[in-house]
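Pilot study result, target chain (241 residues):
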Amino acid sequence: MKGTRPLDNAEIHAVAKSFEGTFAIRNRSLFLLGVSIGGRINELLSLTVGDVYQNGKPAKDVLYDKAIVKGGEVARAVPLNADGRQAVEDIIAWHTEKFGGLLGEVDKDTPLFVSRVKNRDGTPKRMTTQAGSDALMAAFEKAGLNGRLGTHSMRKSFAQRLYSQTNDIFVVQEMLGHKNVATTQKYLGVNYAEVREALELMSVLVAGTEPKQATPVHRASDDALIAELAKRGYNVTNVAK
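Predicted structure:
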């Protein structure tokens, strides 16, 4: 969603604890993968079990191939971090419990994020974009978040967090799949956490935020100042007293 804001680390923690109900694990895993690998909602919902879980363990990288990326973007592989790996472990265990079988034996072609309803042939149906959005917005509300939020908040959170760790916009560009770095710059925008902190420091009227008294400046004598400048290597022979 255009204009949505990213989440800071504290908000990500709060949202992760706010999923409830039968599909809480599915929805939490969607959120944690979103902020960990930066996919668009349609890219995340296009993933299969085999895309993220291979040889009995979470994959090292998640591949967004050309079949699922947005038209103007490029295919890419994004490494799974600890949060992402835990999200994969959780949802694979959830799949196993929900659909039966042994852990890790879920059909690799099964949608990773399944719907509440099944296909006509009884196979798991892929979760819809609207269902994903509804689940995320409910968690945002329960976590007490406000501001302009949406599914794209996950992708923007990933972008800002990665940039804060690397300070390399080209790394962020590649992980987001942007063809043009100017698009990545728009994603990064301003760091809302830093802006909030800066604005709070500007407060002067609310109790407890009064500015501290300025420390009086010590005025040195001219002789002392000239001596200090000479000590630091400045030519002060022509300085008038």
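One observation from the pilot: The chain is about 50% helix and 10% strand. A full batch analysis is planned for the follow-on phase.
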